[in-house]
Amino acid sequence: VLNAPDYTRTCSCGYQNQTSLALIHMPELEVWTSSLLGKRSTVTTVNRVGINFGAPGDRLSKSGTLWLDYPSVGDHSPDIIIKVTAGEKMNTFRSHALRVQGEMPWVTASGIRNVESIDIELKLVTKQTKMDIQIFGERPATKAPAKKAAPRNFTIRLYFREPDKLKAGERVFSLSMQDKVLLKDFDIAKESAGATVVREFKGISISQNLAIKFTPDAKSKAKPLICGIELIEEK
């Protein structure tokens, strides 16, 4: 604790600023930033990235994944092409991470509702600095006609949380990735009431785009949602 009490009582100044303050270390406070990687000039293929839906900025996790906000609201972010479709207007939600329990609370503190599909192209425009190579992998640009990229295997982690206090059975949906159903009749509230739910899938083959589709159950009261997507290339 840094304490700076008021000591102006003996000051002869005609404009005294009588102010006291105390500073307390609070590591639980959220820390968000922005990135200049998207302002560089050569093409790089992504091999590790996180998409944090509804977040107020970018953030680097302890594991080394750079999480990017979508839609981008926290100033500059790397230029990764993301397409989200929704049956209704895309609806984002956000709360403080202290209100969230479970793994990676600052990822699941925000998200998007009413989502139908997400398409992520694993390319961005950036200069190949050491930091870029560590996070995104070095893939020099070329003037030759673009060739179809060879498939690469990724570990995909999907992050969910029920923000609307719905009961089990009120938000149920299935999820497919690269046209393969990986989650059937998925119920966030049933899996973990109010806390983070993470589902991990290994060996997902991606040539250029990751395509995810959400299908709500016919009896579901609410539409699908998601908080974050983490992609890590398998070596």
Please characterize this protein's 3D structure:
The chain is mostly beta strands. 6% of the residues lie in helices and 43% in strands. The protein is built from three helices and 16 strands. It has helices spanning 105-108, 130-136, 188-191, and strands at residues 2-4, 21-23, 42-45, 48-53, 59-60, 66-70, 81-94, 110-121, 123-126, 152-160, 172-177, 180-187, 197-206, 209-216, 225-226, 228-233. A six-stranded mixed beta sheet has the order 5-6-4-16-10-13, with no helix packed on it. Strands 7, 8, 11, 12, 14 and 15 form a six-stranded antiparallel beta sheet that branches. Strand 5 and strand 6 (66-70) form a beta hairpin.
The helix/strand order is EEEEEEEHEEHEEEHEEEE
Task: Determine the N-to-C terminus distance.
Answer: 46 Å
Percent of sequence in beta strands: 35-45%
Mean pLDDT, nearest integer? 83
Secondary structure class reads mainly beta
Count of helical regions: 3
| Gross geometry | globular
Task: Tell me roughly what share of residues is in helical segments.
Answer: under 10%
Brief overview:
The protein has helices at about 105-110, 130-135, 190; strands spanning about 1-5, 20-25, 40-45, 50-55, 60, 65-70, 80-95, 110-120, 125, 150-160, 170-175, 180-185, 195-205, 210-215, 225, 230-235. The chain is mainly β.
